[in-house]
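Quick question: what would this complex look like in 3D?
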Amino acid sequence: MKIIACQGLPYRELNREVRRLVAAGEDRLWLRGVNGQRYIAAGLTGRVQLRIEGTAGNNLGAMMDGPAVYVDGNVQDGAGNTMSGGEIVVRGSAGDIAGYAMRGGRIFIQGDAGWRVGIHMKSREEQAVLVIGGKAGDFLGEYMAGGTIVVLGLYQTLPREAEAANPLAGNYLASGMHGGVIYLRGRIPAWQIRGQVQTSLTIPEESPRLQTWIEQFADRMGLDCSALRRETFTCLTPQGARPYAHLYDHSA
Amino acid sequence: MPRSLIPPEFLVVRDEERCLQCKACVRQCGFGVHREEPGRGLWADEARCVNCQRCVGMCPAGALQITANTGIGRENAYWTAGRLREIWRQAESGGTILTSMGCDRNYPVYFDHLLLNASQVTNPSIDPLREPMEIRTFLGRKPEKLDLAGPPGEERLTGSLPPMVRLEMPVMFAPMSFGSLSRNAVLALAQAAKKLGILFNTGEGGMLSALAPYGEHMIVQVASGRFGVDRAYLEAGRIIEIKIGQGAKPGIGGHLPGEKVNEEIARTRGIPAGADAISPAPHHDIYSIEDLRQLIDTLKEATDYQKPVAVKIAAVHNVAAIASGIVRAGADIIVLDGLRGGTGAAPKLIRDHIGLPIELAVAVVDRRLREEGLREQVSLVAGGGIRSTADLLKIICLGADAVYLGTAALLALGCHLCQKCYTGRCSWGIATQDPELVRRLDPEWGAARLVNLLTAWQHELKEFMGAMGINALESLRGNRLQLRGVGLPQNELDQLGVKQAGEAM
């Protein structure tokens, strides 16, 4: 394992060093003292493992395809932006636009995620998956075209009756969704369900894919999530593939 | 109640004496106008006709003619036939009227009010048949200075230059996606770009796998929907272009109608087949110039600073300040798409009522960047309604490095400008995904026509330059002294930075 001391290192130098080491065949890197450096692992390919200590800056792992990035800390905006493959594990919270337009790979966030998370997620042969341990902000899964988002709400301490006023995701949840699936723990208030999605209820025990993602999340975080097996989850899927077709006159 | 109040826009006139009853028209029409029914024979459902001229062109007997239906009723100079039709259509459908191609309204065309200069006696014109003329150009950030080292006479460049891309002529094919265009149309553009030593642009729909051999001549686009954007895609092209806006629909996103999203397109874009391919209006990771800088940097990091990054915007009222911000955000190329820029699908009113003519946009951006000392840091590409070599010359004199050709390229492929690309029924096989229609366009035939067009333009370009006594494109860029305005008020001349015809140097 190669260690890079990142304290005070400008992002271009840090990222050039990461690329150089990966090109030289290094398969495990330990980035210590990361303090907001941007674009770490952006566009990186291969099977390399990156362990990051500190707070990773914007667009961590953007457009990357393959590496496994483990962050002992928080990440700023754009983690996994337009990512194609690989895995990002965040042992803290993530900022806005995590997983924007990601089309493959997995992102596991132990804490909360910000706004506009998972917008326009897509899917290829391999399913893109984004699991959030806490809550997410507004516009979660907007324009979603593929892939899976799971919000676990592990840190909800509110009594059941107060949950409806404090949902796990914010306003404009899944607006314009035309592909993929979102699972939110518990029931969601009626006002959050927009015309473009349909909802159903499930429990992980009866939904093997959901169960798989929860187990993977628990494994990455070293948590015991077995209590979730019989918890109710709301499942959001698109009503149709063309949420806005009615707005236009398509005649010749 | 009547089914529809909308009279047909066009009338199909069939010369019964010439007609051979061969039914070529029935087979050729992509819109289902020509039909044959027992007892009725050949007839035309004129309400469906878009005047694409396919039947006229393919009728072996020359028996068909399409004419405008002028008998709409009580249209007048204010309530035009087009306006009446649109209101009736919206009253029937409740939807926004869609259209395609570029703005066709009668706004001033500055190209047609600009005249070029030529040399007479005091400085000689140059004969392009005898003298070499340099029409190559390089796109990308230019260094502020060159570091040379070595003994006198044998100096060599030290250090590295920013990535630049050579064009054999200052013309590229505009971004048009696989999805809006057929596979064969995209292949024709790619083949022609390779033969001509220029570039084509994938548009925002990702990369058709068959385009891999044309990577050296390809610009890959990253738009708000991020369709097809992965590592291989970013690596494949010479230039990465961030699409912020499009001249035909500034400020709004894109919808590739589900009618055109077949299995192959769905796979290329990573969305369900039959779904509308939705590009949100903004990139949701770009809400400011600072955010734009981060996407530019991300793309450069992801490709190890090996490729110029372009940013394409629609020309809007504040374009000069926006362009200045884009250069400061680190873009190597700015693309301005003017009012006349085309589209595969856009709301008609947006297309026709938003934007800035490209002539003004290029002039004000070039001036602003020069004033701020930024002009050499960036290449300026102009798109949106370039119709001829004359337009090309004029826009270069106003400050552009190169142009994008969209509409003109499609016309070379057989487009007849019916503006119905959004229906996916293009009878010419260009803007359709219907396999029966797509195979009408042979990529080799199309590429040969594009090469012909631009070979002619190359020669014209050299003749114009020779006439001006200029033998290198570099001497023409932003050279407003070569232009004079006719019939323009002073404030328009000022915006263009051009003198009134009659004024001397």
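Answer marked as accepted. Chain A has a mean pLDDT of 94.
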